[in-house]
TrEMBL record:
Keywords associated with the record: Methyltransferase, RNA-binding, S-adenosyl-L-methionine, Transferase
Protein name according to UniProt: 16S rRNA (Cytosine967-C5)-methyltransferase
Domain SAM-dependent MTase RsmB/NOP-type as annotated: residue spans: 135-422
InterPro entries the record matches: MeTrfase_RsmB-F_NOP2_cat, MeTrfase_RsmB-F_NOP2_dom, NusB-like_sf, NusB_RsmB_TIM44, RCMT, SAM-dependent_MTases_sf
The UniProt record lists the keyword Nucleotide-binding: no
One of the GO BP terms on file: regulation of DNA-templated transcription
Phylogenetic classification of the source organism: Bacteria, Pseudomonadati, Pseudomonadota, Alphaproteobacteria, Rhodobacterales
Binding site for S-adenosyl-L-methionine: C242, A243, A244, P245, G246, G247, K248, D263, D304
Family listed: Belongs to the class I-like SAM-binding methyltransferase superfamily. RsmB/NOP family.
Length: 423
């Protein structure tokens, strides 16, 4: 490819990054929402646009701090977002001449931004010489108040500050092996974490050795712990409720359990089916509302309920900006209804693992405490897990936070509780 074609692709990726960032900041869209502009790009440019928009969301407060002294009045949001993206590129070591020139071109060509090309040029030229050096010393961006307030109340300010540092750092690439985790770690050049997750700094998943043969799937080390706590035995009948895209289904099936995977979204189940096909593992797949699924007699049920997903901000920096917490009350009610329904499907003596990728106790510890009030004959179980210190366990279950294992790359925030029905 010629240099000129390369430059055009880079420009298209920047334009798409601007559209993504403006979708999140102005319309509450998520980076994973369908985007026709992104679909028109080659895969590597799509990845570049998503990476850039993600970096700008992580570092938005820092970019604003660098920009503030150079802006006498607030420019339109699309221009501000272009400046933020350029700032982040400069701060992360992008060559000043190319970055400034490209962003001026993007702003000049935009219908709503064209009149601000001069301003963009002037501001970026002032910022370029200092951005990279000043960036690391700028304060760690804070979560927005709708989320920060309940988290400070639950975990205290120092813990929330540590979580915010983890959000800024982003997430490594975690893999779960279908078979021998140590062999997978060696094959892909990753680190084996206690418990069996293989961790890589980053990389293109589909290019890793063993991908086509289904030797592994992508799954954060925290998410992998729910199935480890459920500890499926070969031949057991296990129901995976809210199963798509299927990381936990694959773990249960790999352990030899007879798995039924239920999810409301047929589209997301398509990814689960593809994962089963790639790994050669088997499960029955049912597209249905979990609350309407009425087959009883399960040895064990894993309920990975829909939640605020606030434990995944390292990988989804758009979430705190695009959302405002308005949906959480409804999710909490749904989670409680799903726990009661799952308990009604479990055979006597069976176990229910309830988990959410949320940092909010109302979607975790409180759900288990309230389930125990509604069903006093249940008991909470604890599992001995390699790599899990005693103090991550609370009365209701295992609490995982993004600031845990910080030196090794962190983990998603999760709550996992295990309830045993009387025999
Ligand atoms: C946290 S995700 C599940 C992740 C999955 N367990 C995994 O390990 O890959 C929550 C899932 O709940 C599903 N869901 C939401 N409401 C549901 C309902 N009423 N019944 C069944 N599934 C539902 C969503 O489609 C989504 O796939």
């Amino acid at each position: 490819m010629t240099d000129r074609a390369d430059a055009q692709d880079a420009l298209a990726a920047r334009r798409a990054a601007l559209s993504l960032l403006t979708g999140v900041t102005a319309e509450g869209r998520l980076l994973s929402d369908p985007s026709p502009m992104l679909d028109r790009l080659a895969p590597e440019d799509r990845a570049r646009a998503q990476r850039l928009a993600g970096a700008a969301l992580r570092g938005m407060a820092r970019a604003d701090a660098l920009l503030a002294p150079h802006l006498r009045k607030a420019p339109p949001l699309a221009v501000r977002n272009a400046l933020r993206l350029a700032c982040v590129e400069l701060a992360l070591g992008g060559a000043a001449h190319g970055v400034v020139g490209s962003w001026v071109e993007v702003v000049k060509a935009g219908k709503r931004t064209g009149a601000h090309a001069g301003l963009t040029n002037a501001v970026l030229r002032k910022i370029a010489p200092e951005a990279e050096a000043r960036w690391p010393a700028l304060p760690v961006p804070k979560l927005p108040p709708w989320l920060r307030r309940p988290l400070v109340e639950a975990w205290g300010r120092p813990a929330v500050e540590a979580m915010e540092a983890a959000h800024l750092a982003g997430a490594p690439l975690d893999l779960t092996a279908r078979g021998d985790a140590a062999a997978l770690a060696q094959a892909v050049g990753g680190t084996l974490l206690p418990g069996g997750t293989v961790r890589l700094e980053a990389g293109q998943v589909t290019a890793l050795p063993g991908y086509e043969e289904g030797a592994f799937w992508v799954q954060d080390t925290a998410a992998a712990m729910a199935a480890r706590i459920l500890a499926p035995q070969a031949g057991e009948a296990v129901l995976d409720l809210c199963a798509a895209p299927g990381g936990k289904t694959l773990q249960l099936a790999a352990a030899g359990a007879r798995v039924t995977a239920v999810d409301l979204s047929d589209q997301r189940l398509g990814r689960l089916r593809a994962n089963l096909a790639r790994t050669g593992l088997e499960a029955e797949v049912v597209a249905q509302d979990a609350l309407a699924f009425d087959r009883t007699g399960w040895d064990a049920i894993l309920l990975d309920a829909p939640c605020s997903a606030t434990g995944t901000i390292r990988r989804h920096p758009d979430l705190p900006v695009a959302r405002d917490g308005a949906e959480i009350g409804g999710l909490i009610d749904l989670q409680a209804a799903m726990i009661d329904h799952a308990l009604s499907l479990l055979k006597p003596g069976g176990r229910l693992v309830f988990c959410t990728c949320s940092l909010i106790p109302d979607e975790g510890e409180v759900q288990i405490a309230e389930a125990l009030e509604r069903h006093p004959d249940l008991s909470v179980e604890r599992a001995a897990l390699e790599g899990v210190p005693e103090d991550w366990w609370g009365e209701e279950g295992l609490r995982l936070r993004p600031d845990y294992l910080a030196e090794a790359g962190g983990m998603d925030g999760f709550f996992i509780g295990c309830l045993r029905k009387p025999g």
